[in-house]
Amino acid sequence: MKHTYYIIALAIGLFLNSCATEKKESEPDVKAPRFSGYYTLTSIEDTPITKQGITFNIESQKRRITGFSGCNSYNAEFTLTKDKLDITDPLSTKKACPAEAMDLEKKVFKNLIKVNRYTLKNGTLTLYNKDQVLFKATSTAL
Questions:
Q1: What pTM was estimated for this model as a whole?
Q2: Domain limits of the chain?
Q3: Any idea which fold 37-139 has?
Q4: Which of the pair, 51 or 66, is modelled with greater confidence?
């Protein structure tokens, strides 16, 4: 009989302990206020961009990027941890534009989801895939 009480007490103890234990996943590092801001694209894959007015509006606290892709407005979500930046597939409006603008927009979206890290130095935001520079953008006041 005592043996049964010990088993029941042990089961209750394990149950209560499991309720109090949470799995801790790596917390996103959204405490990066210097990453937040409004940026204008200056190059994509080292090709200068001068005409399109492609923008990134990065809101770290909301984990969101919005902007203009040269033809349409877009938005995407991101996760920023200490060593990694992941950006979701962007959602965009579906306005038709000249072929050159549409091709550039496709290139922006294709590369945006490849981004996995960034640097920010002297107002220049650089987005990378490993060591390959995908985008360079300059900080712009709204």
A1: 0.74
A2: 37-139
A3: Lipocalin (2.40.128)
A4: 66
